[in-house]
Amino acid sequence: MTDDTTAAAPADLAPDDLAPDDLAPDGLGEGELPPEPEADAPDVHDLPGGALAALEAVLMVADEPIPAVRLATVLGLPTGEVVDLLRTLAEEYRGEHGGRPRGFELRQAGEGWRIYSAPAFHQVVGQFVLDGQTARLTQAALETLAVIAYRQPVTRGQVSGVRGVNVDGVVRTLTARGLVAEAGTDPGSGALLYRTTGYFLERMGLTSLDELPPLAPYLPEIDAFDGLDGAAVTTGDV
């Protein structure tokens, strides 16, 4: 049984904060127990490419940053060893070991690690994503999505006020495609609020909403359309 006075290593500790003295000889943090491998899980060192390749395989399917502790649990390795592997992969992708720089990079974001497109190629990636979105969404859907992205969370009535048309059908389409989602209700009117999703960021090639171009100052203030919730807006086409 684990001693109640033993402190587990924090999951959000940055790799650079792990001083050599903080790690036990076996790669575990002080007081940290080795993760239990899953039943019948193979030794990752015996897989093709070894532990590095196994770590890459997991990172490639991650849709959000994964803490090193969780990666260690999945791979059945000490957390310290996984942190070293993450550093090695990040350096390799940057071309620091004699190889060519890659079009992607491994970096720490928040409390975890994830593979992202390299910043140098953001225009190429953005063009590819935008071309794909334009081919699949109507102009009305793109305009509605833009209003939601820049003024979220918003109600359908508020979006209709900005666009001057009823957007109920368009919002249903965007919701069905996973680009927007419900985000509670407006305290004043009780109308449903909508926000963009993580899938929206992925399709736009963004890691956060802070990376959206500075278009928001040119949109009308949402407060001006508070009275439109529940009112029918019928002008124009959607």
TrEMBL record:
GO biological process, one term: cell division
Ranges of Acidic residues composition bias in the record: 14-24
Keywords: Cell cycle, Cell division, Chromosome partition, Cytoplasm
SUPFAM superfamilies xref list: Winged helix' DNA-binding domain
Protein name: Segregation and condensation protein B
Compositional bias ranges of the Low complexity kind: 1-13
NCBIfam families: SMC-Scp complex subunit ScpB
Superkingdom as given in the UniProt entry: Bacteria
InterPro entries membership: ScpB_csome_segregation, WH-like_DNA-bd_sf, WH_DNA-bd_sf
Any Pfam family hit: SMC_ScpB
Species annotation: Cellulomonas pakistanensis
Region: Disordered, residue numbers: 1-47
